[in-house]
Design brief:
The termini are far apart. The chain is globular. The strands form 4 sheets. A 9-stranded mixed beta sheet has the order 7-6-5-8-9-10-11-17-18. A 5-stranded antiparallel beta sheet has the order 12-16-15-14-13. The chain is about 30% helix and about 30% strand. A hairpin with a 4-residue loop joins strand 1 and strand 2. The longest helix has 19 residues. It has about 375 residues and is an alpha+beta fold.
Length: about 375
């Protein structure tokens, strides 16, 4: 029955992604690899994790195989949590739709020497190896236990991948230079080591911040890399990164410091293009929107000490409160005005240029200067 459940869930994933047009048309190999060559469940540990409303709870394959299968193949936009440390997720199998999109963005060909940063459960490394061929993929994982498990899983799948234990931010120069580099965890600053270890003309795909991933091409002289935003998705940060406090911890139990009358309709914060622009102009402000029965709840916080909450009813009336030293709703409105002045660029118009000394995000063209005001 457990195998039947896995097959049902795998087919459901395939059908949903087919219906959504989520498989990359320019990289047909990705669909074959994810569904057949390198099945996701073969790289999932026996213990998975899910949020029960209060904390992350374990789901063991041996005692609840159906629930385990449901978590492995939850849906195109659902990640599968494979490790929890200190009460927070620290490793996962990424959303299938995002994995497919990032592999498509990499423009990977057979024979490409490829470096992966953040080996995790080795599923992504296996997908890379299925495309590039034996001996062409090096994956770096900071957790020695995960790295050892990755070696066993890859060997069991008959895939020749070099698994190294180390800090992914440093890359792995011994096996470079690489035609392609891909990271599976989020960084705010693209490590120069990743670019230095990529061949001129080579391609680097990496999650940036909390919002999406970029594809950068290394210049012919190797002194810079430039490219565009490719898609959206949430990624875990590198191990040891201070993720700040969650909204509920910043909000606390005390009464708000002030009531606020927002300058504009906050329903605009459901626009992903605006939210991405705000991520660029105000990177430490985290925005969450939830809609229930026509009521929209907007929660903002900075991960430290400032927060804001607004509730908009179906008629458009708004109740808003703030706490902490910062006026987050005013900061967000300033960011919205800047986005409007710049012509409301969609997220696909944003890109990044990285040199040894700095990086900047732009909108429109690489020579248009930094986007942030």
């Amino acid at each position: 029955m457990a195998l039947e459940r896995l097959e049902q869930r795998r087919l459901a994933l395939a059908q949903t992604m087919d219906a959504q047009g989520a498989w990359p048309a320019d990289s047909p190999w990705v669909r074959r690899a994810i569904l057949d060559t390198v099945p996701r469940h073969a790289f999932a540990p026996d213990l998975l994790w899910t949020w029960d409303g209060h904390a992350f709870a374990g789901v063991d394959r041996s005692t609840d195989p159906d629930r385990w299968a449901d978590l492995v193949y939850a849906g195109p936009d659902d990640s599968t949590i494979t490790q929890v440390l200190g009460g927070l997720p620290s490793s996962s199998l990424s959303c299938p739709s995002v994995v497919a999109d990032m592999l498509d963005s990499l423009i990977l060909e057979p024979g490409h020497r490829t470096l992966e940063l953040g080996g995790g459960q080795a599923w992504n490394a296996a997908l890379l190896a299925a495309r590039t061929g034996a001996g062409n993929v090096t994956t770096v994982e900071i957790d020695p236990g995960l790295a050892e498990l990755a070696r066993h899983r890859l060997a069991a799948a008959g895939l020749d991948v070099s698994v190294r234990t180390g800090d992914g931010n440093a890359g792995w120069p011994e096996a470079g230079p690489y035609d392609r580099v891909i990271a599976t965890y989020a960084v705010d600053q693209i490590p120069w080591a990743w670019i230095a270890q990529t061949k001129p003309g080579g391609r680097l795909v990496a999650p940036w911040g909390r919002m999406g991933h970029l594809a950068l091409t290394v210049a012919d002289d190797g002194q810079s890399a430039t490219g565009w935003v490719q898609g959206l998705g949430l990624f875990m940060p590198s191990r040891g990164t201070d993720q700040g406090r969650e909204y509920h911890a910043v909000r606390g139990e005390d009464p708000p410091d002030r009531a606020v009358i927002p300058a504009r309709d906050l329903r605009a914060l459901t626009d992903l293009h605006l939210v991405f622009a705000l991520r660029v102009s105000a990177p430490d402000i985290r925005i969450t929107t939830t809609e229930t029965d026509g009521h929209l709840t907007v929660e903002l916080h900075d991960g430290v000490s400032s927060w804001a909450t607004a509730i908009i009813d179906p008629a458009g009336s708004t109740i808003a409160y703030e706490g902490g030293p910062r006026y987050l709703l005013s900061e967000v409105e300033a960011g919205r005005q800047h986005w409007k002045q710049r012509g409301t660029p969609p997220l696909w118009d944003f890109g990044m240029t990285v040199t040894r000394d700095r990086q900047h995000v732009w909108a429109g063209t690489a020579d248009s200067g930094p986007y942030a005001p």
